[in-house]
Automatic annotation (TrEMBL):
GO BP annotations, alphabetical order: peptide catabolic process; proteolysis
Lineage: Eukaryota, Viridiplantae, Chlorophyta, core chlorophytes, Trebouxiophyceae
Protein name: ERAP1-like C-terminal domain-containing protein
Species for this entry: Auxenochlorella protothecoides (Green microalga)
Domain of life: Eukaryota
Biased composition regions of type Pro residues, renumbered to the chain: 74-84
PANTHER family recorded: AMINOPEPTIDASE (PTHR11533:SF299), PROTEASE M1 ZINC METALLOPROTEASE (PTHR11533)
Chain segments carrying region Disordered: 64-93
InterPro entries reported in the protein's UniProt record: ERAP1-like_C_dom, Peptidase_M1_aminopeptidases
GO cellular component, one term: cytoplasm
Length: 382
C-alpha cells in the first residue's frame, strides 16, 4: 500500500517477486545504513525459515535504528533513541507507520527464536515500546521527571484529523506492546475488558485490547471474553475473540482442548492451535506434545479426503516450523510418522525440517550476541 511513497524523513518500500523486501528510510549522516529495515523472508511466505540465513544480527539491530555491525565480533554501539531520531524506531513520530510495519514482524519472530526470550521481550516492552509510547507528541523525547501520557491507548482513538499512518500504527503498537507485557498497556486492558461494550472501544483497537487482557492470565478475564465469543453475531467479532482466547496461558484456560469441542468450528480449529503455539516462546513444544497425543481427533475434526489431509499437513508444518533447535526434529518426525495415514504427502515434513534447520543456524550464529546486546539495554526491573 505504500510502494513508491517517499517524503522528507519518510520511507520507501520495495516489492520483489514474492512480496515486500523491505523499507528504506532517510538515514542520518553518521550512520548511512541505519534506517534500512529488511523483512524476514518467512513473513513473505518464502521457504528457508522465518528469518533466513541471509538475515543477520545486524538486520535485527538495524530494525531498532542501531548501526549495522561490520565486524560481527564488535560490541554493538549504545542504543540511544533521543540522539538519533532520524533512524530510531523508538523516537519516530506517532504518524510514521511504515518503518514499524516493516519491523514488527521481524521483532516478533526474533522474540520466538531468541535464547534469552524473556530478556528480549523485556527490552521490547519496557525500553523500545515504552520509549516510543511515552514520548511527547511529534516524536520528541520526554525530558520531564513525570512520565507523559501514553501516545496511544485503547480508550482514546486517534485524534480527529489524524493521518492514515497514525490510525494504522495505533492498533499495531498496542497489540505488540501488549504481546510483550508492557505494564501500562496491560493494566489498561484489564481495566477496560470487564465493562466492554460494542461501542466502548474503537473497533481498530479491539483485537489488541482483547488479546492483551487474555494474555495476562486471569481466568475471569478469559471467561468474560469467552462470553463475548459465544454472543458474537458479526464474523469479525467472533474472529478477534477466538484469537484472543487462543493466546491464553495455561493458568487461565486450555485453548487446545477447547478447540476440539463443539464451540469451535472445524475451520477455526487450526487458527486456535497455531495461535496458541505462537503465543509465547515456550508454547511450541507444549502444543507439539499435545498434537502428538491428539493428532487423531484433530484430524477427524478437520475432515477426511484430500482437503482434510492438506489441512492437517499444513497445521503440523505451521507448528513445527516454530522450533529453532535441531534436537526437536526427531519429535517432529515422530508425529508426522504417526499421522502418515492422514498426511500422506511428505512435503509438509520436508518444509518443516528445512525451516527448523534454518532457524537453528540463525540462533547459533547470532543468539548469544543478541542476548548480550539485549542485556545491556533492557530494563530488568520495569
Amino acid at each position: 500500500p505504500f510502494q513508491g511513497r517517499a517524503r522528507e524523513g519518510g520511507w520507501v518500500c520495495r516489492e520483489g517477486d514474492r512480496g515486500w523486501l523491505g523499507c528504506v528510510g532517510k538515514s542520518d549522516e553518521s550512520h548511512p545504513r541505519a534506517a534500512t529495515v529488511p523483512l524476514p523472508t518467512g513473513a513473505l511466505g518464502t521457504r528457508g525459515g522465518f528469518l533466513g540465513e541471509a538475515h543477520s544480527l545486524s538486520s535485527v539491530l538495524q530494525a531498532l535504528g542501531v548501526p549495522p555491525l561490520d565486524d560481527p565480533t564488535a560490541t554493538p554501539p549504545p542504543f540511544n533513541p533521543p540522539t538519533r531520531p532520524s533512524s530510531s524506531l523508538a523516537a519516530r513520530s506517532p504518524e510514521d507507520y511504515e518503518p514499524w510495519a516493516a519491523a514488527l514482524p521481524y521483532l516478533e519472530r526474533v522474540a520466538q527464536l531468541a535464547p534469552c526470550s524473556t530478556l528480549w521481550q523485556n527490552y521490547l516492552a519496557q525500553t523500545l515500546f515504552n520509549t516510543f509510547l511515552r514520548q511527547d507528541a511529534g516524536g520528541q523525547a520526554n525530558t520531564s521527571t513525570a512520565p507523559p501520557p501514553l501516545a496511544f491507548s485503547f480508550d482514546a482513538p486517534s485524534p480527529e484529523g489524524a493521518g492514515v499512518g497514525q490510525r494504522l500504527l495505533r492498533p499495531a503498537i498496542l497489540a505488540a506492546a501488549g504481546r510483550y507485557g508492557h505494564l501500562a498497556i496491560t493494566a489498561q486492558a484489564l481495566e477496560l475488558v470487564p465493562n466492554l461494550t460494542a461501542s466502548s472501544v474503537d473497533p481498530d483497537a479491539r483485537s489488541a485490547l482483547l488479546a492483551t487482557a487474555v494474555r495476562a492470565g486471569h481466568r475471569d478475564v478469559w471467561e468474560g471474553v469467552h462470553r463475548l465469543y459465544l454472543a458474537a453475531d458479526a464474523a469479525d467479532e467472533r474472529e478477534r475473540t477466538l484469537r484472543a482466547l487462543a493466546a491464553a496461558p495455561g493458568a487461565a484456560a486450555d485453548p487446545l482442548d477447547w478447540s476440539l469441542g463443539p464451540e469451535v468450528r472445524a475451520q477455526d480449529m487450526a487458527t486456535v492451535i497455531v495461535t496458541a503455539a505462537r503465543a509465547r516462546p515456550d508454547t511450541p513444544s507444549l502444543v507439539w506434545a499435545w498434537l502428538g497425543r491428539k493428532w487423531r481427533p484433530v484430524s477427524e475434526k478437520l475432515g477426511g479426503g484430500n482437503e482434510g489431509a492438506r489441512r492437517m499437513g499444513s497445521l503440523l508444518e505451521s507448528v513445527a516450523s516454530l522450533f529453532s533447535n535441531q534436537t526437536a526434529i526427531p519429535e517432529v518426525e515422530a508425529v508426522f510418522a504417526a499421522s502418515r495415514g492422514v498426511v500422506t504427502e511428505g512435503i509438509y515434513l520436508e518444509r518443516a525440517r528445512e525451516t527448523i534447520e534454518t532457524n537453528a543456524v540463525w540462533v547459533t550464529a547470532h543468539g548469544s550476541k543478541l542476548c548480550t546486546w539485549a542485556a545491556q539495554h533492557a530494563k530488568l526491573k520495569p
